[in-house]
């Protein structure tokens, strides 16, 4: 089951706004799954694939029409460290589960985005919020390329190069996907109006200018208040490419106590108004990341 919608996602974006899903991990936890593991949700590809499919289905019912796969933290090293010798099969399964959930839940077209998370996420040490790993662009491209190739075997409609903390990794990811035959979006994680590594957003987004394989650029896994500036900068720096925006809820993670704190700033009650402003500024792919669940996506669906 690898055939996607007849209409390419790029064509759908040219016509209007397309709604992304929300945070996969928080929905899995809501279903009772334990994600206290270095592989995070990717572990369930081997141990509880039905839970992943159920989480995807929850977002389709909420109105999402793009599902991001559970491969964000997946790697050959991570799977191999568990003695799982069929790593390529698990990468393929991430797309197959999303596709199956969509087909079982709605007759509407639903696009599947193969998640290619950053090197720091695979290390499971928070490095995706710092970047600058001490690796060259070539080394990072060599790391990502086998993951991309394995994901492509599942037949995703698009690849989500997401939560990218710096320009070096963005350049490496664009090299890794070059010529793969599938469109991609490039999404940075940002803070204080810059990449997590401190680079100007205009320079970061400009890496995608003139690259026809990149159908959208933008931000994810950031505070909602970062989005307006990022959307405007992305559209301007790339000459008008569609923009993708899917921030976190705005709650803070207490690493010492292992719990979330603070009030959400991208809550269901206020998310529609915020998202309408982003769309007016050029956002075409809109959704949520960590701690934005089906209720939040349903609120966006009703508004957008």
UniProtKB/TrEMBL annotation:
Enzyme Commission no:
2.1.1.10
- Positions that bind Zn(2+): 221, 289-290
InterPro entries assigned to the protein according to its UniProt record, in alphabetical order: BHMT-like, HCY_dom, HCY_dom_sf, Hcy_S-methyltransferase
Write down the top EC class of this protein.
Answer: transferase
Q: Which domain of life is it from?
A: Bacteria
GO biological-process terms attached to the record: methylation
Q: Name one Pfam family in it.
A: S-methyl_trans
Q: What are the UniProt keywords, alphabetically?
A: Metal-binding, Methyltransferase, Transferase, Zinc
Cofactor(s) needed: Zn(2+)
Every Hcy-binding domain range: 6-304
Tell whether Methyltransferase is among the UniProt keywords. Answer: yes
In the record, what terms sit under GO molecular function?
A: methyltransferase activity
- Give the protein name, as stated in the record: Homocysteine S-methyltransferase
What is the native source organism of this protein?
Streptomyces iconiensis
């Amino acid at each position: 089951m690898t055939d996607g919608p007849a209409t390419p996602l790029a064509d759908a974006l040219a016509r209007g706004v397309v709604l992304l899903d929300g945070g996969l991990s928080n929905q899995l936890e809501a279903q009772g799954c334990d994600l206290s593991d270095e592989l995070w949700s990717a572990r369930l590809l081997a141990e509880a694939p039905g839970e992943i499919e159920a989480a995807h289905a929850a977002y389709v019912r909420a109105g999402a029409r793009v599902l991001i796969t559970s491969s964000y933290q997946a790697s050959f090293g991570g799977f191999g460290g568990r003695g799982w010798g069929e790593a390529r099969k698990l990468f393929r399964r991430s797309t197959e589960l999303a596709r199956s959930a969509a087909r079982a839940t709605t007759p509407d077209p639903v696009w599947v985005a193969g998640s290619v998370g950053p090197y720091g996420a695979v290390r499971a040490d928070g490095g995706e919020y710092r970047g600058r790993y001490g690796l060259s662009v070539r080394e990072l491209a060599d790391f990502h390329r086998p993951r991309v190739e394995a994901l492509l075997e599942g037949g995703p409609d698009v690849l989500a190069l997401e939560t990218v903390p710096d320009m070096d990794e963005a350049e490496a990811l664009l090299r890794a996907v070059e010529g793969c035959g599938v469109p991609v979006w490039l999404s940075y994680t940002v803070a204080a109006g810059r990449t997590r590594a401190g680079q100007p957003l205009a320079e970061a987004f400009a890496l995608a200018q003139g690259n026809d394989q990149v159908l959208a650029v933008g931000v994810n896994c950031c505070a909602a208040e970062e989005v307006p500036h990022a959307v405007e900068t992305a559209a301007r720096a790339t000459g008008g490419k569609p923009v993708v925006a899917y921030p976190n809820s705005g709650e803070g993670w207490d690493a010492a106590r292992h719990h979330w704190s603070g009030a959400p700033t991208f809550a269901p009650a206020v998310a529609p108004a915020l998202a309408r402003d982003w769309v007016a500024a050029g956002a075409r792919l809109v959704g949520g990341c960590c701690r934005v669940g089906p209720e939040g996506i349903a609120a966006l669906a009703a508004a957008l």
